[in-house]
Design a protein that fits this description.
about 190 residues; alpha+beta; five-stranded antiparallel sheet; 4 helices; 5 strands; transmembrane helix; membrane; transmembrane
């Protein structure tokens, strides 16, 4: 007597049918992996400086602006670079030869973090959210790279032949993408608000 269910095909047999390899999928996976790792590492380090988790927190006091000419094939334009002084919050470090692209308008001190190499990172909410956006975009690319690298073919989120871990990875990727969009929108709103 039959229960009315269709018999399940074994996983190996299903895998043989479902996982037809696409030769360029692995190259796409490698590309997404490299870009995702680069974004994760760079934005993670920059995020740490923008939030003052590492480095020496302090203030940049703008003294005078300088117009700098930039350009290339698309034409030339100028932007303002501020010359000024950095003073750490604990008063132990002072540097009077600092150049900062985002030195504010010269009226109020700008919160910055000084790295050990002598570089300065602006510690404002817009920068924090921007680096957070880059971090989650890197996470999205990294998780999207895993299935093509493992199986040689991409999967769609609702693919019934995908293993459970691939479906979970795609959910994580979607979560990273949504968080990236929210952080990017918040960074834009904070930057526009001033």
């Amino acid at each position: 007597m039959s229960s009315g269910r269709t018999p399940r095909t074994p996983v190996r047999e299903r895998a043989g049918r479902a996982y037809t390899r696409k030769p360029r999928a692995r190259m796409g996976g490698v590309f997404a992996l490299v870009i995702g790792l680069a974004l994760l590492l760079a934005s993670g380090a920059e995020f740490a400086y923008a939030t003052a988790l590492v480095g020496t927190p302090g203030r940049f006091y703008a003294e005078y602006p300088e117009q700098v000419l930039d350009g290339g094939r698309g034409g030339y334009h100028t932007h303002t670079v501020w010359q000024g002084t950095f003073r750490s919050d604990d008063g132990k470090v002072t540097d009077s030869h600092v150049r900062l692209d985002d030195g504010g308008d010269g009226d109020a001190p700008v919160p910055v973090t000084r790295a050990a190499s002598g570089d300065y990172y602006v510690a404002k909410p817009g920068y924090v959210l921007g680096w957070l956006c880059g971090f989650f975009l890197g996470g999205c690319l990294l998780t999207c790279a895993l299935p093509p690298l493992r199986f040689g073919r991409p999967f769609r989120p609702g693919d019934p032949d995908a293993p459970a871990w691939v479906r979970n990875v795609m959910r994580v990727s979607l979560g990273c993408l949504v968080t990236c969009g929210a952080a990017g929108a918040a960074a834009l709103a904070v930057a526009v608000a001033g």
